[in-house]
Design a protein that fits this description.
Layout: E1 3-14, H1 19-32, E2 37-41, E3 47-52, E4 69-80, H2 88-102, E5 107-113, H3 118-122, H4 124-140, E6 150-158, E7 161-168, H5 193-202, H6 206-212, E8 218-222, H7 228-235, E9 239-243, H8 250-253, E10 258-261, E11 274-279, H9 285-298, E12 301-309, H10 315-330, E13 334-339, E14 347-354
Parallel strand pairs: 5-6, 8-9, 8-11, 9-10, 11-12
Antiparallel strand pairs: 1-3, 1-4, 2-3, 4-7, 6-7, 12-14, 13-14
Domain Ribosomal RNA large subunit methyltransferase M THUMP-like: 86-165
Keywords: Cytoplasm, Methyltransferase, rRNA processing, S-adenosyl-L-methionine, Transferase
Protein name: 23S rRNA (Cytidine2498-2'-O)-methyltransferase
Protein backbone atom coordinates (compact mmCIF):
# COMPACT_ATOMS: atom_id res chain seq x y z
CA UNK A 1 0.00 0.00 0.00
CA UNK A 2 1.34 3.40 -0.98
CA UNK A 3 2.65 5.67 1.77
CA UNK A 4 1.89 9.40 1.48
CA UNK A 5 4.07 11.61 3.69
CA UNK A 6 3.24 15.35 3.80
CA UNK A 7 6.37 17.50 3.87
CA UNK A 8 7.69 21.02 3.35
CA UNK A 9 10.86 21.06 1.26
CA UNK A 10 12.46 22.71 -1.74
CA UNK A 11 13.72 20.30 -4.38
CA UNK A 12 16.22 21.32 -7.03
CA UNK A 13 17.28 19.19 -9.98
CA UNK A 14 20.85 19.83 -11.09
CA UNK A 15 23.84 18.42 -12.93
CA UNK A 16 25.12 15.17 -11.41
CA UNK A 17 28.20 15.91 -9.33
CA UNK A 18 26.99 19.37 -8.30
CA UNK A 19 24.48 18.29 -5.66
CA UNK A 20 26.58 19.84 -2.88
CA UNK A 21 26.84 23.22 -4.58
CA UNK A 22 23.14 23.19 -5.40
CA UNK A 23 22.30 22.35 -1.78
CA UNK A 24 24.54 25.15 -0.49
CA UNK A 25 22.77 27.58 -2.76
CA UNK A 26 19.31 26.44 -1.62
CA UNK A 27 20.37 26.91 2.00
CA UNK A 28 21.73 30.40 1.28
CA UNK A 29 18.56 31.46 -0.51
CA UNK A 30 16.37 30.01 2.24
CA UNK A 31 18.36 31.86 4.88
CA UNK A 32 17.69 35.17 3.17
CA UNK A 33 13.95 34.67 3.64
CA UNK A 34 14.15 33.31 7.18
CA UNK A 35 13.94 29.65 6.22
CA UNK A 36 15.17 27.16 8.81
CA UNK A 37 16.03 23.59 7.91
CA UNK A 38 18.73 21.32 6.56
CA UNK A 39 20.16 20.23 3.22
CA UNK A 40 19.83 16.71 1.86
CA UNK A 41 22.19 16.08 -1.08
CA UNK A 42 23.79 12.83 -2.19
CA UNK A 43 26.47 12.74 -4.87
CA UNK A 44 25.36 11.26 -8.19
CA UNK A 45 21.62 11.77 -7.65
CA UNK A 46 21.42 15.02 -9.67
CA UNK A 47 19.19 16.63 -7.06
CA UNK A 48 19.36 18.48 -3.75
CA UNK A 49 16.75 19.32 -1.13
CA UNK A 50 16.34 21.98 1.51
CA UNK A 51 14.04 20.37 4.07
CA UNK A 52 12.21 22.76 6.40
CA UNK A 53 12.38 22.29 10.15
CA UNK A 54 9.37 20.70 11.83
CA UNK A 55 7.58 24.01 12.48
CA UNK A 56 8.89 25.84 9.44
CA UNK A 57 8.19 26.14 5.76
CA UNK A 58 10.54 26.31 2.83
CA UNK A 59 9.92 28.97 0.19
CA UNK A 60 11.02 27.86 -3.27
CA UNK A 61 13.02 30.47 -5.21
CA UNK A 62 12.41 31.11 -8.89
CA UNK A 63 14.66 28.80 -10.87
CA UNK A 64 16.08 31.75 -12.82
CA UNK A 65 17.39 33.24 -9.57
CA UNK A 66 19.62 30.21 -8.98
CA UNK A 67 23.00 29.25 -10.41
CA UNK A 68 23.13 25.47 -10.13
CA UNK A 69 19.45 24.42 -10.26
CA UNK A 70 17.83 23.37 -13.53
CA UNK A 71 14.42 22.95 -11.93
CA UNK A 72 13.04 24.14 -8.58
CA UNK A 73 9.92 22.72 -6.92
CA UNK A 74 8.17 23.31 -3.60
CA UNK A 75 7.54 19.75 -2.38
CA UNK A 76 4.37 19.02 -0.39
CA UNK A 77 4.27 15.20 -0.39
CA UNK A 78 6.55 12.17 -0.69
CA UNK A 79 5.07 8.98 -2.09
CA UNK A 80 6.73 5.62 -1.49
CA UNK A 81 5.77 1.96 -1.95
CA UNK A 82 3.71 2.89 -5.01
CA UNK A 83 1.86 0.00 -6.62
CA UNK A 84 3.33 -0.28 -10.11
CA UNK A 85 -0.14 -1.28 -11.30
CA UNK A 86 -1.73 1.93 -10.00
CA UNK A 87 0.58 4.83 -9.29
CA UNK A 88 -2.04 7.45 -10.12
CA UNK A 89 -4.60 6.89 -7.32
CA UNK A 90 -2.20 7.81 -4.47
CA UNK A 91 -1.09 10.86 -6.46
CA UNK A 92 -4.69 12.01 -6.80
CA UNK A 93 -5.21 11.56 -3.06
CA UNK A 94 -2.12 13.63 -2.22
CA UNK A 95 -3.02 16.36 -4.71
CA UNK A 96 -6.61 16.50 -3.45
CA UNK A 97 -5.35 16.88 0.13
CA UNK A 98 -3.12 19.75 -0.97
CA UNK A 99 -6.02 21.45 -2.78
CA UNK A 100 -8.20 21.11 0.32
CA UNK A 101 -5.42 22.66 2.41
CA UNK A 102 -5.10 25.56 -0.03
CA UNK A 103 -8.87 25.98 -0.30
CA UNK A 104 -8.70 26.01 -4.09
CA UNK A 105 -7.29 24.27 -7.15
CA UNK A 106 -4.24 26.38 -8.09
CA UNK A 107 -2.73 24.19 -10.82
CA UNK A 108 -3.05 24.80 -14.52
CA UNK A 109 -0.87 21.90 -15.72
CA UNK A 110 1.15 18.93 -14.57
CA UNK A 111 4.74 17.99 -15.44
CA UNK A 112 6.22 14.55 -14.75
CA UNK A 113 10.02 14.43 -14.60
CA UNK A 114 13.02 12.67 -13.09
CA UNK A 115 16.59 13.68 -12.19
CA UNK A 116 19.29 13.70 -14.88
CA UNK A 117 21.27 10.94 -13.17
CA UNK A 118 22.05 7.42 -14.36
CA UNK A 119 19.08 6.07 -12.43
CA UNK A 120 16.88 9.05 -13.19
CA UNK A 121 17.31 8.75 -16.94
CA UNK A 122 16.08 5.15 -16.72
CA UNK A 123 12.81 6.56 -15.33
CA UNK A 124 12.22 8.88 -18.30
CA UNK A 125 10.14 6.33 -20.29
CA UNK A 126 7.91 5.82 -17.24
CA UNK A 127 7.44 9.58 -16.92
CA UNK A 128 6.43 9.88 -20.57
CA UNK A 129 4.09 6.90 -20.30
CA UNK A 130 2.26 8.32 -17.27
CA UNK A 131 1.98 11.90 -18.54
CA UNK A 132 -1.24 11.49 -20.51
CA UNK A 133 -3.12 9.25 -18.05
CA UNK A 134 -2.22 11.45 -15.06
CA UNK A 135 -3.25 14.62 -16.88
CA UNK A 136 -6.61 13.09 -17.77
CA UNK A 137 -7.14 11.76 -14.25
CA UNK A 138 -6.45 15.18 -12.73
CA UNK A 139 -8.86 16.83 -15.16
CA UNK A 140 -11.61 14.31 -14.39
CA UNK A 141 -11.08 14.84 -10.66
CA UNK A 142 -11.31 18.62 -11.05
CA UNK A 143 -7.73 19.06 -9.87
CA UNK A 144 -6.53 21.12 -12.83
CA UNK A 145 -7.98 24.55 -13.60
CA UNK A 146 -7.72 26.74 -16.68
CA UNK A 147 -7.49 29.74 -14.34
CA UNK A 148 -4.69 28.18 -12.30
CA UNK A 149 -1.37 30.00 -11.98
CA UNK A 150 0.78 27.15 -10.69
CA UNK A 151 2.44 24.11 -12.21
CA UNK A 152 2.09 20.73 -10.52
CA UNK A 153 5.31 18.70 -10.55
CA UNK A 154 5.70 14.95 -10.14
CA UNK A 155 9.35 13.96 -9.71
CA UNK A 156 10.03 10.22 -9.84
CA UNK A 157 13.08 9.04 -7.91
CA UNK A 158 12.34 5.30 -8.36
CA UNK A 159 9.69 3.23 -10.11
CA UNK A 160 7.75 3.14 -6.83
CA UNK A 161 8.66 6.53 -5.35
CA UNK A 162 7.94 10.13 -6.30
CA UNK A 163 7.78 13.62 -4.86
CA UNK A 164 4.82 15.90 -5.51
CA UNK A 165 5.42 19.62 -5.65
CA UNK A 166 4.42 22.88 -7.24
CA UNK A 167 5.60 26.30 -8.29
CA UNK A 168 4.18 29.31 -10.07
CA UNK A 169 4.22 28.72 -13.81
CA UNK A 170 6.75 31.50 -14.42
CA UNK A 171 9.12 30.40 -11.63
CA UNK A 172 9.79 26.81 -12.70
CA UNK A 173 10.61 25.52 -16.17
CA UNK A 174 8.03 23.88 -18.46
CA UNK A 175 10.48 21.30 -19.85
CA UNK A 176 11.01 18.03 -17.97
CA UNK A 177 14.01 18.27 -15.68
CA UNK A 178 14.38 21.92 -16.63
CA UNK A 179 16.37 20.81 -19.67
CA UNK A 180 15.69 23.05 -22.69
CA UNK A 181 14.86 21.60 -26.07
CA UNK A 182 17.49 22.98 -28.42
CA UNK A 183 18.17 22.28 -32.07
CA UNK A 184 21.13 20.09 -32.97
CA UNK A 185 24.05 22.19 -34.25
CA UNK A 186 25.11 20.59 -37.52
CA UNK A 187 28.50 21.81 -38.70
CA UNK A 188 29.68 23.29 -35.40
CA UNK A 189 33.52 23.30 -35.26
CA UNK A 190 33.56 22.27 -31.58
CA UNK A 191 31.33 20.92 -28.84
CA UNK A 192 31.57 24.26 -27.02
CA UNK A 193 29.31 25.87 -29.64
CA UNK A 194 26.32 24.27 -27.91
CA UNK A 195 27.11 26.21 -24.72
CA UNK A 196 26.86 29.62 -26.36
CA UNK A 197 23.84 28.59 -28.41
CA UNK A 198 22.05 27.54 -25.21
CA UNK A 199 23.14 30.66 -23.33
CA UNK A 200 21.75 32.99 -26.00
CA UNK A 201 18.50 31.01 -26.02
CA UNK A 202 17.82 30.76 -22.29
CA UNK A 203 19.66 33.59 -20.54
CA UNK A 204 17.82 36.35 -22.40
CA UNK A 205 14.14 36.66 -23.20
CA UNK A 206 12.85 37.26 -26.73
CA UNK A 207 12.73 41.04 -26.34
CA UNK A 208 16.30 41.15 -25.06
CA UNK A 209 17.57 38.98 -27.90
CA UNK A 210 15.88 41.24 -30.43
CA UNK A 211 17.39 44.34 -28.83
CA UNK A 212 20.85 43.06 -27.93
CA UNK A 213 21.65 40.55 -30.69
CA UNK A 214 21.06 42.25 -34.03
CA UNK A 215 22.58 41.51 -37.46
CA UNK A 216 25.56 43.73 -38.13
CA UNK A 217 26.59 44.06 -34.50
CA UNK A 218 30.26 43.59 -33.62
CA UNK A 219 31.66 41.06 -31.18
CA UNK A 220 35.01 39.90 -29.83
CA UNK A 221 35.64 36.23 -29.02
CA UNK A 222 38.63 35.83 -26.68
CA UNK A 223 40.37 32.47 -26.99
CA UNK A 224 38.31 31.70 -30.06
CA UNK A 225 40.07 28.66 -31.62
CA UNK A 226 38.83 26.45 -33.17
CA UNK A 227 35.87 28.81 -33.57
CA UNK A 228 32.81 27.27 -31.89
CA UNK A 229 31.55 30.43 -30.20
CA UNK A 230 32.56 32.59 -33.17
CA UNK A 231 30.58 30.29 -35.47
CA UNK A 232 27.44 30.63 -33.31
CA UNK A 233 27.71 34.42 -33.45
CA UNK A 234 28.02 34.36 -37.24
CA UNK A 235 24.75 32.41 -37.38
CA UNK A 236 23.19 35.55 -35.87
CA UNK A 237 24.94 37.61 -38.60
CA UNK A 238 27.26 39.26 -36.09
CA UNK A 239 30.73 40.43 -37.20
CA UNK A 240 33.37 38.79 -35.01
CA UNK A 241 36.99 39.56 -34.18
CA UNK A 242 38.30 36.13 -33.16
CA UNK A 243 41.30 36.53 -30.85
CA UNK A 244 43.55 33.47 -30.60
CA UNK A 245 47.07 32.45 -31.59
CA UNK A 246 45.66 29.09 -32.66
CA UNK A 247 43.94 28.28 -35.98
CA UNK A 248 40.23 28.64 -36.74
CA UNK A 249 38.21 26.10 -38.70
CA UNK A 250 38.17 26.95 -42.40
CA UNK A 251 34.37 27.05 -42.69
CA UNK A 252 34.23 29.61 -39.86
CA UNK A 253 36.49 31.94 -41.83
CA UNK A 254 34.48 31.25 -44.99
CA UNK A 255 31.45 33.04 -43.49
CA UNK A 256 33.05 36.36 -44.39
CA UNK A 257 32.04 37.74 -40.98
CA UNK A 258 35.21 36.82 -39.08
CA UNK A 259 38.52 38.62 -38.62
CA UNK A 260 41.15 36.34 -37.09
CA UNK A 261 43.56 38.25 -34.85
CA UNK A 262 46.56 36.26 -33.63
CA UNK A 263 47.07 37.78 -30.20
CA UNK A 264 46.93 37.11 -26.45
CA UNK A 265 43.34 37.35 -25.28
CA UNK A 266 44.43 38.86 -21.97
CA UNK A 267 46.26 41.74 -23.65
CA UNK A 268 44.33 42.59 -26.83
CA UNK A 269 41.74 45.39 -26.84
CA UNK A 270 39.60 46.78 -29.69
CA UNK A 271 40.07 50.28 -31.07
CA UNK A 272 36.34 50.98 -30.64
CA UNK A 273 33.60 49.72 -28.34
CA UNK A 274 32.07 46.42 -29.46
CA UNK A 275 28.57 45.19 -28.77
CA UNK A 276 29.55 41.79 -27.37
CA UNK A 277 32.52 40.27 -25.60
CA UNK A 278 32.41 36.46 -25.35
CA UNK A 279 35.02 34.20 -23.80
CA UNK A 280 35.38 30.45 -23.18
CA UNK A 281 39.08 30.36 -22.29
CA UNK A 282 40.39 27.56 -20.08
CA UNK A 283 41.89 29.76 -17.39
CA UNK A 284 41.63 30.47 -13.67
CA UNK A 285 38.07 31.76 -13.14
CA UNK A 286 39.07 34.72 -10.96
CA UNK A 287 41.47 35.86 -13.68
CA UNK A 288 38.73 35.67 -16.32
CA UNK A 289 36.30 37.58 -14.08
CA UNK A 290 38.91 40.31 -13.59
CA UNK A 291 39.55 40.51 -17.33
CA UNK A 292 35.85 40.83 -18.22
CA UNK A 293 35.32 43.41 -15.48
CA UNK A 294 38.12 45.50 -16.97
CA UNK A 295 36.48 45.49 -20.40
CA UNK A 296 33.19 46.64 -18.89
CA UNK A 297 34.88 49.29 -16.75
CA UNK A 298 36.68 50.75 -19.78
CA UNK A 299 33.57 50.70 -21.97
CA UNK A 300 35.31 48.33 -24.39
CA UNK A 301 32.13 46.23 -24.70
CA UNK A 302 28.43 46.83 -24.14
CA UNK A 303 27.72 43.38 -22.70
CA UNK A 304 29.66 40.22 -22.01
CA UNK A 305 28.90 36.50 -21.97
CA UNK A 306 31.58 34.15 -20.71
CA UNK A 307 32.34 30.88 -18.95
CA UNK A 308 34.11 30.36 -15.64
CA UNK A 309 35.96 27.04 -15.34
CA UNK A 310 35.45 25.92 -11.75
CA UNK A 311 38.03 24.24 -9.48
CA UNK A 312 37.54 20.76 -8.07
CA UNK A 313 36.72 22.05 -4.57
CA UNK A 314 34.75 25.00 -3.14
CA UNK A 315 33.04 25.56 -6.48
CA UNK A 316 30.09 27.48 -5.04
CA UNK A 317 32.35 29.78 -3.03
CA UNK A 318 34.60 30.32 -6.06
CA UNK A 319 31.61 31.23 -8.22
CA UNK A 320 30.42 33.84 -5.71
CA UNK A 321 33.95 35.23 -5.38
CA UNK A 322 34.25 35.59 -9.16
CA UNK A 323 30.92 37.39 -9.43
CA UNK A 324 31.99 39.76 -6.66
CA UNK A 325 35.33 40.39 -8.40
CA UNK A 326 33.47 41.09 -11.64
CA UNK A 327 31.25 43.68 -9.93
CA UNK A 328 34.17 45.33 -8.15
CA UNK A 329 36.36 45.48 -11.26
CA UNK A 330 33.58 46.76 -13.53
CA UNK A 331 32.71 49.50 -11.06
CA UNK A 332 29.24 50.06 -12.49
CA UNK A 333 25.77 48.60 -11.85
CA UNK A 334 25.39 45.27 -13.65
CA UNK A 335 22.51 42.97 -14.44
CA UNK A 336 24.34 39.71 -13.69
CA UNK A 337 22.95 36.30 -14.61
CA UNK A 338 24.93 33.20 -13.76
CA UNK A 339 23.80 29.67 -14.65
CA UNK A 340 25.19 26.21 -14.94
CA UNK A 341 23.66 25.40 -18.31
CA UNK A 342 22.78 21.93 -19.55
CA UNK A 343 25.80 21.93 -21.89
CA UNK A 344 28.17 23.25 -19.21
CA UNK A 345 30.39 20.73 -17.47
CA UNK A 346 32.75 21.84 -14.67
CA UNK A 347 31.83 25.45 -15.33
CA UNK A 348 29.18 28.15 -15.17
CA UNK A 349 28.09 30.71 -17.74
CA UNK A 350 27.77 34.41 -16.88
CA UNK A 351 25.89 37.14 -18.73
CA UNK A 352 26.82 40.69 -17.70
CA UNK A 353 24.73 43.59 -18.96
CA UNK A 354 25.31 47.12 -17.63
CA UNK A 355 22.09 48.22 -15.91
CA UNK A 356 19.89 50.42 -18.08
CA UNK A 357 19.65 53.94 -16.69
Amino acid sequence: MAIIEPTHAVLALCRAGFEGECGQELADLAGRTGGVGYVRARNGTAMAEFVASEDGKASAPAVESTIFARQVVSVFARLTALDVGDRISPMLAAVRARADEAGRVPWREVLIESPDSDGGRELAPLCRRLAGPLDQALLRAGLLSRTGTRRLHVVFTATDAAMLGEHTSDASRPAAGGIPRLRRLSGAPSRSAAKLDEALAVMMDADERQRLLQPGMRAVDLGAAPGGWTWVLTRHHVQVSAIDNGPLAAHVMDTGLVTHVRADGFRWRPAKTVDWLVCDMVEQPIRVATLIGGWLADGACRQALFNLKLPMKKRYAETLACLERLRDTAGLPLDLRCRQLYHDREEVTVLAIPARR
